[in-house]
Amino acid sequence: MLVLRRIISGFRRLFHKRQVEQELDDELRAYLETATEQKMSAGMSRDEAVRAVRVEIGSLEVVKDRARDVGWESVAESLWQDLRFAIRMLRKSPSFTAVAVLTLALGIGANTAIFSVVNSLLLRALPVVDPQRLVLISSGTADKRGNTTAWTSPIWEQFQQRSGMFDGAAAWSVDDEQLNLTQGGGEAERVDGLFVSGDFFRTLGVPALLGRMLVSADDVRGVGAEGAVAVISYRMWQQRFGGAATAIGTPLVIERVPFTLVGVTPPEFFGIEVGRSFDVALPFSAEPLVHGKDSMADAGGNWLWVMLRLKQNQSREDAAALLHGVQRQVGEVAIPKSLPPEVLQSFLNDPFTLVPSAVVPSSLRRQYTRPLLTILVVVALVLLVACTNVANLLLARASARRHELSVRLSLGASRWRLARQLLVESLVLASVGALLGLAVAAWGSRAIVSQISTSVSRIALDLSLDWRVLAFTVAVTLLTAILFGAAPAFRATDIAPMGVLKEHGRNASGARGVVFAGGLLVAQIAVTVVLVVAAGLFVRTFTSLATLHLGFDPDRVLLVNMNSGRASVDPTQRVPLYERARDAVRVVPGVADVALSTVTPVSGGGMVRRIEVSGGVAVPSTFLNSNGFANVISPGWFSTFGTPVIAGRDFNDRDRTGSVPVTIVNEALAREFLNDANPLGHTVTIVGGPLPQMEIVGVVADAVYLSLRQPAPPTIYMPLAQFPRPPAMLASVSLSVRSSSASPVALTKSVAAAIGGVNPDLALTFRPLLDQVNASLTQERVVAMLSAFFGALALLLAGLGLYGVTSYSVSRRQAEIGIRMALGAQRSQVMRLVFRQSIALIGVGLVLGLTGAAAVTRYVQGMLFGLTPLDPATFIAVPLLMIVVATLAVYLPARRATKVDPMVALRCE
Amino acid sequence: MDNKQSAVVQGTLDMLILKTLALEPMHGYGIGVRIEQISKGVFQVNAGSLFPAFRRLERDGLIKGEWRATENNRRAKYYALTPRGRTTLKRETRDWEAQTAAIARILGASLGKL
After folding, report:
1. What is the ipTM of this complex?
2. Among A55, A125, A594, B114, which lies 20 to 30 A Cα-Cα from B97?
3. Which fold has domain B2-113?
């Protein structure tokens, strides 16, 4: 009540200012008159009485001021005054303001940009109801490795039956391959599919924007009551249907299966895995229809993820205990009896674990968490460098404004009032910088995501501003304002007005100012050195990966994925079909070489086997009970990829089923299994494989297989024509085409036509091998690019800072330099004078920076390749670069100092 | 007499003004004189303290100002206690007495009495 009364009276005073002032004046005058009369009636003369009253009261303005200061409104009013004054002062020096605002906009913008990517990738919860109650069911061992477990359809059915123990269960699966969608006789489009359980949307609490979401009745084996139905994303609805309400009920054809469109998801529901959006959501029951003979559900594959919604007040531990209680029942029912008993045993030995999933774990998150946090630290340091720059600018300005500040102090302003004035100026600078920074951030975060997104993995992130990003920006803005505004504000409070006034406006600043600016410079150089060292390490990591000897030649190779899953071909006839397609492509003009394989390099997938070599040593398993990689290829694969055959021969058309089983190995295999003995004539056996011994007929050079970061592993190659094929395995193969001269992409059309001539039902996807190699380096490239950009920015800012401080100190010492030169000092001596000041600062900054860098770079060791965290080249080159920049930044003002005409400088006095 | 003057204890000026006005409505200068008289010159309050106090009390609705003619036929702003001011004065007087009594007991304490 009292507070309300105070607020209202405050507003009354603000809005009726003149009336309130008038009343105060009247009251004070009446007070004076009564006082005088009283004194006169006590016997004083009028003059005596007036003087006595004046002495008693003191300054009338002070009395008024104290009366005005009673309410909050006076604080608000003086802040408003400060604000207007600050804007006026900043407008008076536009170049200073522009430099400061731009510096801050870059610094704050970079931070906001990176943070909004971090936010949408790592922090933002699923756009569903109460995401904190969602948990993912994983297995203990997968969770320990930071992975999540995919389950089979029968296991999901067991969870589904028990969903009453919780507030529901939901399952989904994301297809790596896009689906073919046609609608209304239009052109086919590749879309991203999401398979979900019937009660997926209900459990998550995602309402339909239009129509209805999928329900349990849709997820019935065969087809549901309304036939096959589909739900599309908001984006798809906008793009394909122009947001028309009539879209509901439209027939869609997905992979030749007719569906009915029944609903549209709300715009904020991007899907379930961060970074991966979806276009069409289909019920699980539709998966066998769409995938035909290659159905994951029918094959008993681990293809879906399961999420539970905990009940209110149900803890994760309680829910896990409930699940452990039924694990045996689930396993006994859901794991097929046809599998060896060890499978059930290992399932039972690996208890269910519940992973909090308000933010669903995704491969994108796993891959980018460290790099993004590293870059976030980098941009924070860049902002620090920017802050020191602005602080130095402000310090120089504060010295120039000492006269103004002294006058205000002498007129009765409090020191706190002056400091507040300067802080408000800083805040105005920072706020304008932040506003511009938001624009920088909107552009920058989009640029970063488009860099992360490749043709190989399409990334979609929701980068819209939310309260977290805004709160972050506001916090950063306030922090920067305090960081760069505090120093000048403190300095302003220890001005001795008399001393400054006596200087009569000359800017002789005390020794403390110089020390302060020097300290800032040292810090700035040190932080910059750390940033440039980090940039050096990341750039060198990227270049050593990008220039790595791959063992194959990625230029001029086009990869064509051929999928026969939906073609009406008997699985046993798939290889002959692929061979006919290969032969058709071979005669396309511009094709130099062509070959088939099940795996292509750095595609993200591979084939691992446990290998034994006759007469060789036993090599222990390295990964998943395997000790080597394998690939199944057609003749001509090595010449297509440009991998040299070192000894023996390539496969030829006589290596078919029925002839002697043969294999080709790489040098790494010879090294590890045979101690570098000649492998020709030895035989290779795959443990547990269907093939007998295979004779080694050729040796090829080592080539990168899975990742550029791993040295070429021991690898065996087997002829496709000899490969005993489980039908599902060869549903798709890669056709690699080497172009004779032009860019391989130019061949796309003619290759597609040639394959279409053989069988129009083969689903094709095209990708240049170079793209695939580059895509595998996306993370390294983005980190190198960002760190190099910010390292350069920091270097530029530090150079500007040093330049600014040096030229300011030179201009202040103009008279002194003039006298020295008049007394006979040489130019070189003046030069030395200027340099001597800076060299110590630069030296200390360098030492601190290098020490700091040496201490922190080991935290990014995991992100480096081919070099140690204390990489000598980087640690030598960076200080040299810093010295060059610093020398330039000092040399320019120093040279100007030597150009001082002694007469001019002295006349200034 | 000069060496007996002292500043009004922080925070008690408001209470003294309220008490003065409880006797009769009074203009600004009169309030200052009255406090000085009653305290036998121990408290001297000047305009610099009085005016902010008037503002504070008026804003909080404890006193009310009104322009009236003085005995010498001049216009002056007379302040009077509001009902709310009267209750506040009662409460503050009670609190003050309790506090001073307690302080007096502490200052007068000796080991024997404990």
Report:
1. 0.84
2. B114
3. Arc Repressor Mutant, subunit A (1.10.10)
